[in-house]
Amino acid sequence: MSYIDPANDGIDVTTFPYDIETLHGKPAKHAYVVDIGVGTRLLVITYAANTARTHTCVTNGEIFPGFIKSFGAASTVTRVRIFFD
Question: Structural domain boundaries of the chain?
């Protein structure tokens, strides 16, 4: 798996919950937090194995590799960019 290059095209997610698999027909290969907002924020991810994890985000640019099916409603980050390649 290749890691993200923020200059590459991706899809920005700003509304949660967001079901990647339903909306795009496949899980995203990776994602990164573009803007966490103010303070420490949460990103709730359901991975392809149907495991849900809550990640605490403290800086912009945090990377989440792995096949991501969806982001949960409890996510409080401002913007996440997803990639399919």
Answer: 11-83
SS (H, E, C) 32-75: EEEECCCCCEEEEEEECCCCEEEEEECCCCCEEEEEEEEECCCC
Please tell me the pTM assigned to this model: 0.88
The Cα-based distances of 38 to 24, 25, 35, 73, 75 in angstroms read 29, 32, 9, 18, 14
Coil, strand or helix: which one is 79?
Answer: strand
CATH fold group of domain 11-83 = Jelly Rolls (2.60.120)
Of 84, 85, 81, 70, give the one whose Cα is nearest residue 11.
Answer: 81
Give 85's pLDDT tier (boundaries 50, 70, 90).
confident
Summarised one tens digit per residue, pLDDT across range 24-70 is: 999 999 999 999 999 889 999 999 999 999 999 999 999 999 899 99
Give the H or E element holding residue 20. helix 20-24
